[in-house]
Amino acid sequence: MKGIITVDIGTTSLRAILYDREARALHLDQRENPPVFHGDGRVEQDPGAWRALLPAVLAGCARAARAAGVEPLCVSVTAQRSSVIPVDAEGAPLHPAIMWQDRRTAALAREFEAHDPMVHQRTGLRISPVFSALKMTWLRRNRPDLWSRAHKLIGIQDWAIYLLTGRFVTDQSFGSRTNLMDLERREWDPELLDLFQVEPRMLCPLVAPGSVVGGLTAGMARLAGLAQGLPVVSAGGDQQCAALGLGLFEGGRAVANTGTGSYLIGHAGRPRLDPGMRVSCNVSAVPGACIVEAAVLTSGAIHQWFREILGSDYETMDREARSAPPGCSGLLLLPHFKGCGAPHWDAEARGGFFNLTLGTTRGEMARAILEGIAIELKESLDLVEQLCGRAETVAVSGGLARSALFNQIQSDCLDRTVVCAEGREATSLGAWIAGAVAMGLATSHGAAFALAGGGGPALTCRPDPLNHAIYERQRLRSRALYQALAAPGFRELCR
After folding, report:
1. 106 within domain boundaries
2. CA distance 449 to 23
3. Is 385 in contact with 249 (CB distance < 8 Å)?
């Protein structure tokens, strides 16, 4: 029996899943691996952790494959995007990974702000601390000793590919999250490299998403218990793969993937740019296509933070949130704990609860977190639909989508039918689809999705008009609160 091993490197964990040829998950090996959040806004991670965990999770899948009589055809890899690791010519990391949530470049973003229109027109992205280019500029300016020794500036996906194959290569879906790649030509842009002071030699060669980028080295094969030379596929960025795993191949629907952050994504056959630069346009995992993406930078991370503050668990929080009324008696959460993504792209924004009273309950605060995230997703949906057309349904996934309450809140806020595939890891399924096409198990991404049973059985939520009206009022209050907090005088007072 043929199978595929997927590797999904998220923000807080790394997982490998062994699938059979019909995308049934036979084995999952997951290891927690959260980044370090420093008090000054830096967010870093030790690249050595991925070096240790990657062969360990692959070995778990290899043992399961032998026990089940499955022959892996490839390892298909997806990962979080826009982090930066400088490495030397031998591939040794020279600095902790600067993660996508890192805010050390907020001042640089203001310095480069005048270039926003040109950069957005070429890359589909406005300049932001989220993306890779400013991190690279920061390294050049602040760590010249390190810069002089750096051979490549790579992302986490590139690091994983190097560990597996010994090759430095990246795919265009990751390139489209750097502020350095021309979206139309899908090539590194010399003028942008000059703007951000990045030497071309320091970037990896670009390939199309879904490409075979090499084979397992002898060393990795020995550690993982897999065949030397086993093909390795770069499946695409994690959000691109999540969209693929949720069946986003055409218009008429959108996807919302909620993990550490949340992403509302629509399909575009070609680059579609927002004149207001409020959403991103990136290379899709679907050949030749793009996705339009609006980001909520912190969502599941806030839910986890609150759980840890309470010393509670998800089941208890969910039960207490159910006890609170829609609208939480007027309580609001602004989920800007690491700045604001779409539509404002405000690195200086801060999160918080508003309208707390001595009568506020834990359940109201837990529910306000879910509602605050869903309200931001509604703002995102409105923007994405302007470029991609109306979405009649929204397919949801991610850790918070395990909550039936959150899915109903999403449906009520978005005023759309919400569909949640049961028991499926959308990002890993997208990596399986990319691997299935690369290995010839399916002739197209749509055919691979059909082979996987269309993503599996699904639960459906339909919007409640009364709750939608409550959330629309909360959305107006949330906008007004953000605008008040963003006023220059207030910002200066809070610094």
Report:
1. yes
2. 9
3. no
Q: What CATH number corresponds to the domain at position 15?
A: 3.30.420.40
Q: Is the pLDDT of residue 117 over 70?
A: yes
The enclosing H or E element of 320 equals helix 314-322
CA quadruple 195, 198, 200, 204: dihedral positive or negative? negative
Task: Report pLDDT digits (tens) over 340-358.
Answer: 988 888 888 899 999 999 9
pTM of the full predicted structure? 0.88
Cα dist. 120→103, 134, 262, 291, 387 in Å?
20, 14, 21, 15, 15
Residue 26 lies in a domain: yes
The one-letter amino acid at 85? I
338 part of a folded domain: no
Task: Supply the range of the domain harboring residue 29.
Answer: 2-240
CA distance 331 to 306: 15
Which residue type occupies 347? A
pLDDT tens digits, one per residue of 467-477: 999 999 999 99
DSSP letter (8 states) at residue 205? P
Answer whether residue 307 shows pLDDT above 90. yes
Reference 373, options 460, 474, 467, 245; nearest CA is 474
248 within a domain of the structure (yes/no): no
Closest among 350, 343, 403, 331 to 41, alpha carbons compared: 350
pLDDT of 491 reads 76
- CB-based contacts of 30, cutoff 8 Å, min separation 6: 13, 14, 15, 16, 57
Residue with tokens 């050949």: 287
